[in-house]
Design goal:
The chain is of the alpha/beta class. Helices cover 27% and strands 34% of the residues. Strand 4, helix 4 and strand 5 form a beta-alpha-beta unit.
């Protein structure tokens, strides 16, 4: 399991400590670090994150205020120099509460706690998500995964197509791929992701979804036909 994470703290030294500790944990991918909680909030609205290392006491926007502004917040490890915040942190179902200065052993314990809480029991299949929330302008749009027919990359934006609408969001195709079940969605082109269940036909090296013909890229062709169990 790879844990996609970010760290938010108004003290650069505290971020340095987290970065040093994170580099020692193979499962942990510290993608970004922020001293400005408002920039972190914007990042979280547009990028998939599993875990936040979040300082509580920050000027302008506290860690708890940041979490309250997210409709679907990731898991949280609160970090602070003030032990009196510990009780409040559990109102947010935090994975852990780390008191500064943070020692590596204590940091690693919080990661192991996250892994234990999010592990799939032996012999049990993970329950797939049925929907995702996508930012479209100033609103969050709920999309049922089974209704998404295909997704097209257009520069820094994605067009997400369902039977009755097109949703435009600022994301990359790689970021979207991470949100969707890999058994259901396949990359067929540098700019396209398709839902296997919405393929109407395959003809002349094109796949047709929701009325749109999409060229199958050469580097995706072999894997695509292998995954759908058809001959090219």
């Amino acid at each position: 399991m790879t844990i996609r994470s970010i760290a938010v703290d108004d003290e650069p030294f505290a971020l340095d400590v987290i970065s040093i500790h994170a580099a020692k944990v193979p499962e942990l991918d510290l993608m970004e670090r922020f001293t400005d909680p408002f920039k972190a909030l914007e990042y979280l609205k547009n990028n998939p994150v599993d875990l936040i290392f979040l300082d509580i006491n920050m000027p302008g926007l506290s860690g708890m205020e940041l979490v309250s502004r997210l409709k679907c917040p990731p898991r949280i490890v609160f970090t602070t120099a003030y032990s009196e915040y510990a009780l409040d942190s559990y109102d947010y179902e935090a994975v852990d509460y780390l008191l500064k200065p943070i020692e590596f052993d204590r940091f690693n314990k919080s990661i192991q706690r996250y892994l234990k809480q999010n592990a799939t029991p032996v012999g049990a299949a993970p329950v797939p998500a049925k929907h995702i929330f996508i930012k479209d302008g100033y609103k969050q749009v709920k999309l049922l995964i089974e209704e998404i027919s295909h997704i097209k990359s257009e520069g820094n934006y994605l067009s997400i197509f369902t039977n009755n609408q097109r949703t435009l969001t600022r994301m990359t195709l790689s970021q979207m791929t991470a949100l969707l079940p890999g058994t259901q969605f396949l990359r067929v082109h540098n700019s396209y992701l398709v839902n296997i269940g919405h393929i109407d036909k395959i003809e002349n090296n094109h796949v047709y979804c929701n009325g749109e013909g999409i060229s199958i890229g050469a580097k995706y062709k072999e894997d695509f036909f292998r995954r759908i169990g058809a001959e090219s």
